[in-house]
Design a protein that fits this description.
elongated; 4 helices; about 80% helix; single chain; about 90 residues; mainly alpha
């Protein structure tokens, strides 16, 4: 994926994360840490949401890392900020 495609994907994933955060009233990073430590949903109706939320958050983390790596690679090639913007446009 190009940096622009990664950024577009990151923004879409952030919208999904915001929906979950608004619904449950906690930040995704807080949820994910508890989820990964094995905490179970208190309400059976939350099970599917929690699985999807964790999946979206994991994908968001992966895309963030991919974006950082792509930008760092371009910066090692001495591409300026203008060059990064031009590539994305």
């Amino acid at each position: 994926m190009t940096p622009y495609e990664l950024l577009t994907d990151i923004h879409a994933l952030e919208e999904e994360l915001l929906d979950f955060e608004r619904k449950y009233g906690i930040r995704s990073e807080t949820f994910y840490a508890a989820y990964m430590s094995g905490e179970e949903p208190e309400d059976d109706n939350w099970v599917l949401d929690f699985g999807e939320w964790a999946s979206v958050y994991r994908t968001w983390l992966e895309r963030q890392a991919e974006y950082r790596n792509a930008i760092q690679q371009m910066q090692r090639q001495k591409i300026s900020l203008f060059g990064l913007i031009r590539v994305a446009a």
